[in-house]
Request: fold
Amino acid sequence: MNIINWQQFGLKKNPYNIQPLVEGGDLPIEKAFIGREKEIKYLNDLFANEDRLCLTLCGNVGVGKTSLANFVKFINKYSQQKLLFSPRREIEASIELLNKKNFIIEIIGSTIKEIKLLQRDLLKDDLMKKLIQIVDISDAISFSGSLSGGLAGYSAGIGASKEKISTQPLQLSMSILEDYFVKMIELIKTHEINGFKYSGLIVHVNNFDVLMAEPENKKKLIQFFNDIRDLLQFNDVYYFFLGPTDLFKNIISVNARVKSVFVGQPIQVAALSKTEIIDALNERMSLLKSDNVKNYLKPIEDNVVFRLYDLYQGDIRSIMKSIKDIIGQSPGSLSRPLNTNEAMVMLGQERWEQIENNFNLKDEQKKVLALIANSQNYVCQKNIADNLKKDRANISGYYFKPLIDLNIIEVKDKKGKTPYWGLTKEFEPLKWYIDARKEVQREIKKSLKQPTLFS
Ligand SMILES: Nc1ncnc2c1ncn2[C@@H]1O[C@H](COP(=O)(O)OP(=O)(O)OP(=O)(O)O)[C@@H](O)[C@H]1O
Ligand SMILES: [Mg+2]
Reply:
């Protein structure tokens, strides 16, 4: 993997950055965000017509849930008739958060952070000072730094004097804390922030996937939503909960009491279409174009994106990551976009180098891997044992286990009780590489000599 010089393409920066789009990020979200018109219209209509809201945004890993929530927050913060305030950063779902007090404090903390960015003098307001104290104290005594992202010492330099902050455990009762929450919403509604008047607050809680990946958390999650049910009904607060496709079905709707305060259907976020992804990538490149060039140069042909789209079933993050891996394989500067064959060979090569350089596999284990990668069909352990004339008992532990642990192979099929194995999506490109290894090396050598490809 070479360090990529983006200037060779007439770009200021990496356009394949896999971070979610966010207000104030490297890319202006209002321009870089593509598609999702239907979901946005639906959400905007809801925001315009409801005076409180609670909904789930569900979808597979990397499809664009966080970016969608951030975009909807952005337009509702700056360009709708009825404006809603929101912290640009989301609240991260975690075990510590699954507690009503922590949840309220986390909302207050993230809101204060945003007000600090946009209307710093508002922090001098008496109520604000009190809110800051609440967040500061709880941050210092009862939370891991990760929970509220290190708000400790928040009061420093913003008017509230440090001496005032007691180091006593947080004694606030739930009802007093809730009361502060309501007062904060009132404050948002009655004070201009950054020149705008707001009608409420959007609360964005991200990544329930992480918690839901552990089955033992399910009960805790259901209990959490039951505990915060009254908060979810406060006026002028609009909640977004983001998670996997089954967040609504398995957590929210199992409790009728909770379900009844949610919008009845989750928003299922599907993969962007192929052309939307092409549009998104083109838009990124024009946004990041160097000032001193007329046009940017596309590093890859659009067909490469289509091919990766099929491989990763539209997962835009994996697509962008792979494109970057491909470009990182080019030995010199590119003078024209890579075509599909070139790109796929390079991606396979990149995966192979990962295995060679980072994974410490024994030669025999690599041989097993090569057999799996070369095989037209998925293979069972008996196939491998027969082929290598090895004892079947060794195959599973010595040969397969490291490949499974490194996420290189996985079960693809089952016939009766026998599992059949193949490459994971991440490593499927190995097929193209190993398959055509010799020819590929010839091709790359040849193209290296051709000034048309690498200069
Ligand atoms: N509508 C869009 N237009 C342009 N780029 C997008 C869009 N949606 C997502 N992206 C880009 O795709 C990548 C993945 O998006 P995002 O992080 O929002 O997905 P996610 O579903 O929240 O992922 P995760 O499951 O990991 O939380 C990011 O780099 C983001 O910038
Ligand atoms: Mg996300």
Summary: Strands lie at 53-59, 91-92, 201-206, 237-243, 267-269, 409-415, 418-423. The radius of gyration is 26 Å.
